[in-house]
Each structure stands twice: as C-alpha cells, then as structure tokens.
Specification:
With 127 residues, this protein is an all-alpha fold. It has four helices and no strands. The protein starts with a helix and ends in a 7-residue tail after the last helix.
Length: 127
C-alpha cells in the first residue's frame, strides 16, 4: 500500500522534471543585444550558430545529477527520523528539488554560452 502512495508523487516529480528539462533547452535565452548598425540576417545566422554551441550543454546529465543528489540527501534526512516512509517521501521531494536545480544550472550555462559566443563575434550584449 505504501508503494502506491509513493508512486503518484514520484510520477508527478518526474513529469515536472521532464517539463522543466524541456524549458532548459528553449531557444529563447533572454539575451538582449544592441542591434543598432547590425545586419538582421547576419545576426540571426550568428545567433543560430551560437545556440547550436549552447545545445552541447548536457542538460539531461545536470538534471539527473541534481535529482540523484537531492534524493540521497532527502532520503538521508528522512531516515534520521527513523521512519522508512518518511525517508521515501523525503527522497522523492529531494529528487524533485535537486532536479529542478539541475535544470536551472543547465539553463544558466546555456545562456552563458550564447552570450559569450555573441560577444566573441563582436555583438554588444546588454545583459
């Protein structure tokens, strides 16, 4: 019976991580470039190339590592209470929190790659 009660939160946590993981790969990285004097078609080509570099960031690995780390820490903290049920719930919660942190780290790294690439190509990045 306890495994059925844990299955639903685990499925929800994993679904949330998949959705958030998809957001980490979004093309809109929120980078603002001063376009005064910039050829729009050349900029779009450069941006696409820079985003291709950013796609090399291993988002899935960062999410998985965060989820595993969170599950271990959450499970350990829950186990301190002496209850295996609480340890399981804490592990699920820790996995969700850790995975979300991994998504944020991957998104930040991708944004930084695009930013650095554009700056390296001579664009004035404003943020």
């Amino acid at each position: 019976m306890a495994s059925n009660r844990l299955r639903a939160p685990l499925v929800l946590a994993l679904a949330a991580l998949l959705v958030l993981g998809g957001c980490a790969g979004r093309r809109d990285r929120g980078i603002i470039v001063d376009t005064k004097g910039v050829n729009p078609s050349e900029y779009q080509r450069d941006l696409a190339e820079c985003e291709a570099y950013a796609d090399q960031v291993q988002a899935g690995e960062k999410v998985a590592a965060g989820a595993v780390g969170g599950a271990v820490i959450g499970g350990a903290l829950g186990a301190i209470s002496g209850s295996s049920e609480r340890a399981r719930r804490s592990a699920v919660a820790g996995a969700a929190i850790g995975g979300t942190g991994g998504v944020a780290d991957a998104a930040q790294e991708r944004r930084q790659v695009v930013r650095n690439c554009l700056v390296g190509r001579g664009y004035r990045v404003l943020n």
